[in-house]
Amino acid sequence: MTGPEVIKFIQDEAIQVIDLKFVDLPGLWQHFSVSSQEFSEDAFTEGVGFDGSSIRGFQEINESDMLLFPDPETGFVDPFANVKTLSLICDVRDPIHGGDYTRDPRHVARKAEAYLKSSGVAERAYFGPEAEFYILDSVRFDQSYNYGYYHLDSEEGFWNSGKEGENGDKNLGYKTRYKEGYFPVPPMDTLQDIRSEMMLTLEKLGVRVEVHHHEVGTAGQTEIDLRFDTLTKMADNMLKYKYVIKNVARRHGKTVTFMPKPIFQDNGSGMHVHQSLWSNGTNLFYNKGKYADLSDTAIHYIGGILAHAPALLAFCAPTTNSYRRLVPGYEAPINLMYSQRNRSACVRIPVYSRSEKSKRIEFRCPDPSANPYLALSAMLLAGLDGIEKKITPPGPIDKDLYSLSPKEKAKVKSTPGSLQEVLQALESDHEFLLKGGVFTEDLIETWLAYKHKKELEAVQLRPHPYEFALYFDI
């Protein structure tokens, strides 16, 4: 839609509230609402003011005034609002110079797509994230000077297999065994109808869904896969995805977490990202007859991803909790190799189909705590750097990388083991992100400072509950 078409839609559909949504630097939607009586076409040309100093990773208090510009093509009627509400995703601009705001993640994504076209390598990049998450029945957590704890629960959790019924309810068994939650039918899978409702709600918003299913973890681990799309559209869709999933769960008296590793000794939640480059209707990653039918362009793209992986993870696995997931076992992709069919490699080449249209690579290290605008943009820039420099990755290993001999394992590099390590990697390796002005030094410096101060140091300063088990009696 255009701006005038949005105004007509508001009138024709008796929309009462306009909800303006935008994304903060860490990657969560923020919003405020305007009466339809006060909303006009001026919003699309002059913007709507807001306080940027109250948004994570944005402005200081002495430079707080900022503008939102709704993107008329992003409108959708909110399925969770009692009052008829039209949501519009917005871009952020500076009111002084009138330009796009360099720390606006959506602006970064649009610049990444523009840089791809200007590079002459391809016309467009397609991305297909596969985000995993847990649907829980309750969560409690708190931290203070003299205590700290968390407690999660799920009716599916195997730890409840011996629990007595409460308030007249019975324990009917059928609890998902640890690491055995992949594809069981009901009654073991209690979440089929909720996932279907999530899928159908997403489709009503124009977000195409390929498949949904129970995942490996006990306690309601789930996966709903989106149909691939171009970079900015897919990042928009990922935020719609989180919004829908969290709110559908809430309708059913449940809660959702996208934390990479909420359950000890069970599988973490990843966000494997499928990606490919296209020009003139041709898949540039396809070359029939080569290894996994991959072109040299695809091999060099993989080379860029693997070469820059430590720095990439500062955006793709950007939390302290991410490195509870990226450990040996639990199907975690820690081996910086590529391989066809092989889920123990960081880059997998799916071979379900041998057709050109399905040829793609899958980067398995990212997780759903990532800001999708920044993570997808960073992956694209790493891949393009690999193509530009013709980076050739180590040869593929088509065997279980977790069971290599010590001699073989010594030849395979691993992902970093902590947020601190990947932030250090980003600090020393980010030239590839600055190409085309996609990322800026200011954004990277702000990201590093935010992650160090608000997350890394905040966790490091606090005693861990398990430290009491280890050290209380020393």
Short description:
This protein is α+β, with helices and mostly antiparallel strands and 474 residues long. The chain has helices spanning 3-12, 42-46, 105-119, 192-204, 231-251, 296-307, 309-316, 322-325, 372-389, 406-409, 419-428, 431-434, 441-460, 465-471; strands spanning 17-23, 29-35, 48-51, 65-70, 76-77, 85-93, 124-136, 138-143, 148-153, 209-214, 221-226, 229-230, 255-257, 271-279, 282-283, 335-340, 345-349, 361-363. Helix content is 32%, strand content 22%.
Q: What is the overall number of helices?
A: 14
Helix content: 25-40%
> What quaternary form is this?
single chain
Q: What would the principal axes of the Cα set say about the shape?
A: globular
Structural class: alpha+beta
Mean pLDDT, as a whole number?
Answer: 95
**Total beta-strand segments:** 18
